[in-house]
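Quick one, T. Sequence first:
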Amino acid sequence: MDTISDNINQRIGVRIRVERESRSWSLSDLAGRAGVSRAMIHKIERGESSPTAALLARIAGAFGISMSTLIARAEMQEGKLLRFADQPLWRDPQTHYLRRHVSPRSDLPIDLVQVELPPGSDIPMPASSYALARQLIWLQQGELVFVEGDTRHEMKAGDCLELGPPNDCRFINESHEPCLYLVVRLNHSGS
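Structure tokens:
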């Protein structure tokens, strides 16, 4: 495992188990709702497998929360100031996309997440990941293609996009350079 992700993957696995058990769901219940094998969920919960971004999005969607919320619940400590050195990092073991949770844990219904997307990446996210929130994507560096349902948005550095109603989406970097973007997520519920 990547040293950036080792510790957070353990905490994510524990958090998935807590979320599942708080709903009185069996492994099979979660597997059926997320469209993921029971064995894979078991391995993730035990810290024996590193989940991909796409897999985490499907599991979070089954819980009715975003991937950001799921990861934040696993990684965040209390406090109003979250210093750069303490901002939790998670690297997707498949695409090597790097996710940095920027905003401190608080009762504000907003999350700020910075993502570095390597060249050639194509990351699908199910509509369920967007069901309970409004989001903006602010491209800070490089080029990003964001596919929202049947709509393709070609973004350049500085562009900011408001996402529409929940839809299956893809984050694509077709360039030869990494792209860096900030996701600003306003949660509609306490999830």
